[in-house]
């Protein structure tokens, strides 16, 4: 089985460089990617819209997404329990590295007035990225939907703190904005 480009790069270069940079004694302590979750929430989710969104996310991720359902009813949002409210997909292994490669090298540079992504992590080495328009991915055709949808991309790492997670993603080429 062939490995993805970033997966080979991690094994050959990034892992040892990170181990030296973070002063880790054991190679198994070196942070690595665990999974990437892509999530799209929809306000007025009817069956046809969800099918279109599922198709687009399947093209972007390379695997079939799962519909997410409301856990409880909220009258203020006109939401009922078990009502479909979006789709999500969890990527691991080769597909995860291929998606990250496309995100960093193809999709993010297509964002208008792009100055880098925010370097804010969640305190445990994991990173969340909000994408306002899915049209930045080359797999998506322009007129596929009546309106563009945004998505949340969560990158979960095995890093023990934010600095280690940030360095891992920086070595993969994630274009972080400089803190002011």
Can you describe this structure?
With 180 residues, this protein is of the alpha+beta class. The protein has one domain (5-44, 53-65, 87-172): Ribosomal protein L5 (50s Ribosomal Protein L5, Chain: A). It is 32% helix and 18% strand. Helix 1 (5-21) packs across helix 4. The radius of gyration is 18 Å and the shape is globular. The termini are far apart. The mean pLDDT is 84.
Keywords:
single chain; alpha+beta; 50s Ribosomal Protein L5, Chain: A
Condensed summary:
It contains four helices and five strands, in the order αβαββαββα. The protein is α+β, with helices and mostly antiparallel strands and 180 residues long.
Question: Any chance you could write out the topology, listing elements then pairs?
Answer:
Layout: H1 5-21, E1 33-41, H2 47-61, E2 66-69, E3 84-91, H3 93-107, E4 127-131, E5 151-157, H4 162-172
Antiparallel strand pairs: 1-3, 1-5, 2-3, 4-5
Helix pairs in contact: 1-4
